[in-house]
């Protein structure tokens, strides 16, 4: 299938690399308001460059559009692509409110097209093993489920673009922008949340509207309790990995980025020794922890391949809008709690 990218910045470049590496996809075109950016990215991958979105979308060969614009600027290009009869894969968050996500979902249904989010931290071997263990009930009664994203962004990062650190175009700070994939991973593994109580602050940055640290106490529908802690003011030399930790009456698993710090179950299975041999964590730096460019594109590649496979097979993709909505709903509830003195908010 022929792909086009809207947005030729850092994320657009990751999309291009993922599309180039994937099966059953090729980069066909790039659209950006800045012609030099569109031409540069398109030229590197043998694609066509556009600055006018209507002309870009009118191309009959274009089948799938990926969206790499700022978070709060997803609605219009996604709607335009769906109305033009294109399938859409949109960067995180799908949109910054559930109301906007619902509008996009309705448009996809109206035009009979696939709308998918990029939930790339679901697509690596460690997550495959973690999800299998959770689905098999190996934790027994789940009692604890938490996520920690202790990252760092310097002031220059926020000063580099006018939209960074704004509610309108970032949709939030450390939680919505840097941590949404880890929040999604927590929900993917532990299930839906019943309530949250949160506090947030901006402690280490200037000239931004949003938080650089947030801590939330979380109660899950299954009874488990946990913590979501996210920051962009937690410096370390190499950067801390993003962590998801589940524990229950029969086991504990601590995931750090793509590998495990803990993999322990009361009842051992034959695959456990191999998982510990191949997927236990070394001393590598955290992916994207200090440098947003320091991420792997292969997770995007697998995400794209899943969407194409779903379209070809005529089924719902695993990263559909409904799945993407869950993390945004939880994040908005955490913000509501934090903005109201840490009151308990029910989802």
TrEMBL record:
Pfam family for this entry, one: GFO_IDH_MocA_C3
Coiled-coil boundaries: none
Domain GFO/IDH/MocA-like oxidoreductase: 130-253
UniProt cross-references to InterPro entries, sorted A to Z: Gfo/Idh/MocA-like_OxRdtase_N, Gfo/Idh/MocA_Oxidoreductase, GFO_IDH_MocA-like_dom, NAD(P)-bd_dom_sf
Domain Gfo/Idh/MocA-like oxidoreductase N-terminal: 1-116
Protein name, UniProt field: Gfo/Idh/MocA family protein
């Amino acid at each position: 299938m022929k792909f086009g990218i809207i947005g030729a910045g850092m994320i657009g470049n990751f999309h291009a690399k993922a599309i180039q590496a994937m099966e059953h996809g090729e980069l066909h075109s790039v659209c950006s308001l800045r012609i030099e950016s569109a031409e540069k990215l398109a030229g590197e991958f043998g694609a066509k460059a556009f600055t006018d979105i209507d002309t870009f979308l009118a191309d009959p060969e274009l089948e799938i559009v990926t969206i790499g614009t700022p978070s709060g600027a997803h609605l219009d290009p996604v709607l335009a692509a769906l109305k033009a009869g294109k399938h859409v894969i949109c960067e995180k968050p799908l949109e910054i409110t559930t109301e906007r996500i619902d509008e996009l979902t309705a448009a996809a249904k109206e035009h009979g097209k696939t709308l998918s989010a990029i939930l790339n931290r679901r697509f690596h071997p460690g997550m495959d093993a973690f999800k299998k263990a959770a689905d098999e009930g190996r934790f027994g009664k789940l009692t604890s489920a938490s996520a920690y994203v202790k990252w760092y962004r310097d002031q220059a990062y926020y000063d580099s673009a006018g939209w960074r650190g704004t509610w309108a175009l970032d949709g939030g700070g450390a939680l919505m922008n840097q941590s949404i994939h880890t929040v999604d991973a927590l929900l993917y593994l532990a299930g839906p949340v019943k309530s949250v109580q949160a506090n947030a602050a901006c402690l280490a940055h200037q000239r931004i509207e949003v938080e650089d640290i947030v801590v939330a106490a979380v109660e899950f529908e299954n009874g488990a309790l946990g913590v979501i802690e996210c920051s962009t003011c937690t410096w370390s030399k190499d950067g801390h990995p993003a962590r998801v930790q589940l524990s229950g009456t029969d086991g504990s698993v601590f995931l750090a980025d793509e590998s495990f710090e803990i993999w322990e179950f009361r009842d051992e299975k034959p695959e456990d020794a191999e998982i510990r041999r191949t997927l236990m964590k070394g001393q590598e730096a955290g992916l994207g922890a200090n440098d947003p460019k320091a991420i792997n594109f292969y997770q995007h590649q697998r995400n794209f391949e899943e969407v194409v496979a779903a379209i070809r097979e005529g089924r719902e993709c695993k990263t559909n809008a409904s799945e993407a909505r869950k993390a945004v709903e939880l994040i908005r509830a955490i913000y509501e709690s934090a903005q109201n003195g840490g009151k308990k908010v029910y989802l």
